[in-house]
């Protein structure tokens, strides 16, 4: 089985721009979660989607949004980028919500200049 | 609120030494799940083990072993006879059940360096 894939792998944007990151879960996995990883804040939960519905959201401003499509693929969007948004954005998938182990993608490294 | 504490920020050992990574958690849920993940220098988080709150049985998998103690809210991870390839950042994580199931709380990670 192919693993979780994330595109693009690297991205450089300037302040004020917006960005869309994509995540394709493992085939058959219907739950997708997003995390932001930074040296200062560690791994922080952004949101979780299941069956095209957002089930959980972390403590991030409204500039961070996401969605899930009927094929379970997910996208996250960050509008009006700030320097502090520079991070590794990780996507993880599980078959269903409910305490399963998460399978992570390689991440998208976003740099905001 | 859930919280995971990995008090050891960095650990350095010489190859073949045993090393234990500590994890202490806080949750009000009666049903919850604990995990350990490894993040090698390549960056991709790799799942190692999952435990639910009703299963306190310790587990051994090769050189890895895990000690789950509800009484002390700890879920420690031991690597026996460490190898250079074990060098990585190790994360302990906690998730609840039902609506909190997909929302994992991670510790800050422990960076393990194994020197030859």
Task: List the defining traits of the structure above.
heterodimer; A: 113 residues; mainly beta; 7-stranded mixed β-sheet; 4-stranded antiparallel β-sheet; 0% helix; globular; B: 116 residues; 12 strands
Structure commentary:
- The complex is a heterodimer of chains A (113) and B (116).
- Chain A has 113 residues and is mainly β.
- Chain A contains no helices and 11 strands.
- In chain A, the strands form 2 sheets. In chain A, strands 2, 4, 5, 6, 9, 10 and 11 form a 7-stranded mixed sheet that branches. In chain A, strands 1-3-8-7 form a 4-stranded antiparallel sheet, with no helix packed on it.
- In chain A, strand 5 (42-50) and strand 6 form a beta hairpin.
- Chain A starts with a strand and ends with a strand.
- Chain B has 116 residues and is an all-beta fold.
- Chain B contains no helices and 12 strands.
- Chain B has strands at residues 3-5, 10-14, 19-21, 24-26, 32-39, 46-52, 59-61, 64-69, 74-79, 88-96, 105-106, 110-115.
- In chain B, the strands form 3 sheets. In chain B, strands 2, 5, 6, 10, 11 and 12 form a 6-stranded mixed sheet that branches. In chain B, strands 3-9-8-7 form a 4-stranded antiparallel sheet, with no helix packed on it. A two-stranded antiparallel sheet of chain B has the order 1-4.
- The radius of gyration of chain B is 14 Å and the shape is globular.
- The mean pLDDT of chain B is 92.
- The interface between A and B is medium-sized, with 27 and 29 residues.
Low-confidence stretches of chain B: none
* Helix/strand class of chain B: mainly beta
| Shape summary of chain B | globular
* Terminal-residue CA separation of chain B: 41 Å
- Largest binding interface between chains: A-B, 27 and 29 residues
SSE string of chain A, helices as H and strands as E: EEEEEEEEEEE
Number of helices of chain A: 0
Q: What fraction of residues of chain B sit in β-strands?
A: over 45%
- Overall structural class of chain A, as computed from helix and strand content, comes to mainly beta
What's the overall average pLDDT of chain A, rounded? 94
Mean pLDDT of chain B, nearest integer?
A: 92
Order of helices and strands of chain B: EEEEEEEEEEEE
Largest sheet of chain B: 6 strands, mixed
The counted number of beta strands of chain B is 12
Shape of chain A: globular
Spatial gap, N to C terminus of chain A: 37 Å
What's the total number of strands of chain A? 11
Instruction: State the helical fraction of chain A.
Output: under 10%
The low-confidence runs of chain A, each spanning 5 or more residues with pLDDT under 50, are none
What kind of oligomer do you see?
heterodimer
């Amino acid at each position: 089985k192919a693993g979780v894939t994330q595109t693009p792998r690297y991205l450089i944007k300037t302040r004020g721009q917006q960005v869309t990151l994509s995540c394709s879960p493992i085939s058959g996995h219907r739950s997708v979660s997003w995390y932001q990883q930074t040296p200062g804040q560690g791994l922080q939960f952004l949101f979780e989607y299941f069956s095209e519905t957002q089930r959980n959201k972390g403590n991030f401003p409204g500039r961070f949004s996401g969605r899930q499509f009927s094929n379970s693929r997910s996208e996250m969007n960050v509008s009006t980028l700030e320097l502090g948004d520079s991070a590794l954005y990780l996507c993880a998938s599980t078959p269903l919500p409910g305490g399963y182990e998460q399978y992570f993608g390689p991440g998208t490294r976003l740099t905001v200049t | 609120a859930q919280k995971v504490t990995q008090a050891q920020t960095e650990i350095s050992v010489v190859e073949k030494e045993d090393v234990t990574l500590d994890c202490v958690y806080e949750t009000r849920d009666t049903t919850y799940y604990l995990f350990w993940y490894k993040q090698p220098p390549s960056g991709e988080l790799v799942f190692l083990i999952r435990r639910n709150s009703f299963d306190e049985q310790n587990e051994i998998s090769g050189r890895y072993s895990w000690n789950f103690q509800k009484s002390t809210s700890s879920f420690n991870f031991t690597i026996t006879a460490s190898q250079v390839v074990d060098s990585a950042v190790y994360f302990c994580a906690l998730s609840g059940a039902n609506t909190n199931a997909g929302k994992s709380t991670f510790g800050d990670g422990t960076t393990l360096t194994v020197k030859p």
